[in-house]
User: Fold this.
Amino acid sequence: MEDDILTIEEVAKYLRVSERTVYDWAQKGEIPSGKIGTVWRFKKDEIEHWVNQRLSGSSRNDGEIKVKNIISPERIIFLNHVTKHDALVELSDNLATAPQIKDAKELQEEILKREELVSTAIGRGIAIPHVRLSSITDLVVSLGISKCDIMDFSSLDDVPVRIVLMIGAAYNQHNYYLQTLAYFTAKLKDQALRDALLKSEDPVEVYNLLTK
Assistant:
């Protein structure tokens, strides 16, 4: 437990559960985790914070995901970048226009830092970069739809990323943050929805597709 990045085996020993249990939690988004290639990895400080929340009884349900409260047409943009760095910079600049974001520089730095650590590409041409920061007052989302393939996201299925959903949340919104991740991950698996998003050229139309 001395390293900042932990394996499934190390997390299992720390939590005194089976490796299979940790794997299942990671697959379901119930524990803070990320993938390097095909292998799950865990940040030590996030695991410790997650444990502390559960022990203190603060692991509460923050309610249903209310999409209209966390995204707006102004935070839907069309990208034209072939590198993830440029795409993430433009999208973080857009997300930073939301009143919930109090430190645009920190947001961008942490988004890029997390992406260097673990790719946020989840397959099917989708990436969901996400951070929790104390300088964010409430969860908020920006969506970028790329008009060209973003080639260097290192997606598990090797499909170039075209849809980038960026989530910023307050540091104490762990459960709502995980619920939002799970909600959009499931929603964007719909091929018909992805096709409609990629064909659209109007932020309002995209907004309606996501919120209907």
About this structure: The beta strands are 5-6, 34-36, 39-43, 76-79, 121-123, 126-127, 130-133, 140-150, 161-170. The chain has nine helices and nine strands.
